[in-house]
Amino acid sequence: MSTIEERFGVLGTATISDALDKIKRPGSMHGLAPLKDGQQMVGRAFTVRYVAAGNPPGTVGDFIDDVKPGQVVVIDNDSRTDCTVWGDILTATAHNRGIAGTVIEGVCRDTIRALTLGYSIYSRGRFMRTGKDRVEVAEVEGPVTIGGVKVQPGDMIVGDSDGVVAIPQDCELEVLEIAEMIEEREEGILQAVLAGSTIAEARAKFGYHLLQRGDSK
């Protein structure tokens, strides 16, 4: 029996985004991109929220000791791109401990480490300036906002070459079943076209134009 993470892990973020559209729930994180094409990530959110540093400034990365293997670190740095909240020490630690990946509403640095290890990072870009003494952790395992999407601790996070989606826990099974249905129908369209059907005929047969609409079955 496949776990829910395994089932989500074989679906593309585009398919999951369509499923979220169908039930009118947000989840597609706008403006975040993968560090490298081809990377994939799935796991439950471990959330971290940063704020501007106080005086004296607080800690920036000790939360990593509390993240469980298979979780995704989801960091809200308030969209700041002038200082980073993730670098090579956190990357190496997370990779060594089996953490699934990192999502940042902000930027990362020391990217060669992540690229060498094959560790998945999604962010708004790269910038080398440290966040130490500029930002500090305000809350761990509370609600955060990433790419316009509210994320709660434990929400399912899926990333691939197209970006990242968050699936709320209260609808994750519904989203999963709809996404699997969409995947099956789109594969049917592809196979019909490869067998000689016109794309218009294949789309009509499998209800392509209704797949993400809330009134479709």
Distance between the termini: 26 Å
Compute the number of helices.
Answer: 6
- Largest sheet entry: 8 strands, mixed
The domain count comes to 2
Average pLDDT reading: 92
Helix content: 25-40%
CATH class placement of the largest domain: Alpha Beta
Shape estimate: elongated
List SSEs in N-to-C order. Answer: HHEEEHEHEEEEEEHH
Structural class: alpha/beta
CATH topology of the largest domain: Glucose Oxidase, domain 1
Number of strands: 10
Low-pLDDT sequence parts: none
CATH superfamily membership of the largest domain: Ribonuclease E inhibitor RraA/RraA-like
Radius of gyration: 19 Å
% residues in beta strands: 15-25%
CATH level-two architecture of the largest domain: 3-Layer(bba) Sandwich
Characterise this structure:
This protein is of the alpha/beta class. The longest helix has 23 residues, at 172-194. Helix 2 crosses helix 5 (172-194), helix 3 packs parallel to helix 4 and helix 5 (172-194) packs antiparallel against helix 6. The two termini are 26 Å apart. Strand 9 (156-160) and strand 10 form a beta hairpin. Strands 1, 2, 3, 4, 5, 6, 9 and 10 form an eight-stranded mixed sheet that branches. The chain has a two-stranded antiparallel ribbon with strand order 7-8. It is 29% helix and 23% strand. The chain folds into two domains: 18-25 and 168-217, no CATH class; 26-167, 3-Layer(bba) Sandwich (Glucose Oxidase, domain 1), CATH 3.50.30.40.
